[in-house]
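Quick one: structure tokens for this chain, please?
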Amino acid sequence: MNERDVQIVFSSTQKQEMTSDKQEQTYPGKRYEENGTQCLSFRETSRDGNEVITTVIVSKDGVMIKRSGGITSEMHFASDETTDFVHESALGRLPFSIHTKELVHSITPSEFSVQIIYDLIHYDAVVSTNTISLVAI
């Protein structure tokens, strides 16, 4: 496994009805290859103050974002597909679906960038439309 230190710029926008919330954070992390897939891993702090380890896995089938620690989830994004996941935190377990509207990534030896636009769905209702952008520098 060829691992190197990177800075990861994580940007997200969440749109709900008439409101929009945008956040951007930079985290120290690792970039590595595992079983033919490109991965990023970094630690972040959840809104309730718990540490979360986030791993982003890019494969030929799409992008998986795994979180463990204060929040546990495995979100799989594939172009124009709807997938299910469970968001687990101290507040409980919540079932969601995500419909990936757009998935763009560029992975080269010198570049790792991912952009995902998706609808977050809870019990057949679209809760929000979200954009995630991850860039390793």
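DSSP finds no helices and ten strands in the chain.
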